[in-house]
Amino acid sequence: MLKIILKIIEWLAFAGILILLFIVISPVLPFNNFAKSFIVVSGSMEPSIKTGSIAITRPIPPSQIKKGDIVAFTSPDNPKNTILHRIDSVKSTDPLIFLTKGDNNNAPDSWEVSSIAVIGSYVYSIPYLGNAASFIRQPLGFVLMIVVPALLFIFFQIFNINRAIDYEVNKKIEEKNRQNNFFSILIIALSVSSIIATSPIKNVNAFFSDTSQISGINLTTIIPTPTPTITPTATPTPKPTGYHCRFRDWHCNFGHHWFKDKFRAFLRKNHQYVKFHFYNFPKFGPKDYLNYELVYRSHDLEKGISGSFDLKNNSNLEIEQFLGTCSGTDCTPDFKSITSVTLSIKGEINSEAIELEGPVDFE
Description:
The protein is of the alpha+beta class. The protein is 25% helix and 34% strand. It comes from Candidatus Shapirobacteria bacterium GW2011_GWE2_38_30.
């Protein structure tokens, strides 16, 4: 949401620069025969037209001008000045001569305005914009309000283009790495299969499984059980029996497990961070550990993060992990395209092996 707001502000600022630049160069544009703009520098027409406004006029045949119209005309006292006043009366029609008056003046103007002096009829005014336009027409104002913002806009556009290029490059690299990993796994699998095929047959242990629910992921609890052996003189070391359970299934035969109320994993609404939360968790012993691996899909690519939880000194702990692609200090989140999030946790707590795997809930 913040990125959208900043984008809107960026384009509004750019539009403002274009408008101000248009006002500055409007006197030399080829469509002066259709409309003209003037900066109102005095208060003779207040409150109708504020001082510091930009006034827009359009050409009008002098014969259509009537009493009460606001017109721009060349000053009879100084042809270099343009006056914007209201028609107070039509003195004569042949030749066409007008008398004018400012709304804020007590008496009509002392001069007479001929039809050939009329520039155009008032259409609309934009308050306060004239002050900015006057400042821009000065060298310092042009640099501060046109050149500097334009350079900043260009800089940010170049920055965004470079970020997009980095993203595409990283995307290609990840795709290539994924292909390499596939071939590596295939070679390892073939090698292991060859070893197993040529090895003598050993004893087989059976594992009984049951299920229990813990908030949206799978739980496996390992419990020692004796393993039979074909030699009566040897007593084998007890091997673990696995209990598998989906957290969302409240009807597991296995029943309640202590891990159920101690751990949660979910994504924030914007999907930029995954959050792990431990509640009153037993502190780690010397040999205890928990490792995690989170796999998700983004832009049709499989991505993942991994790490370990350190609960030696914390029984209540919240951990947030960023999901995205980083290049140096510049990171791009994947939150717009994250799907199929799966979490797996393996470790040992108080001599009990813990093994979890399943989907992560969205907050």
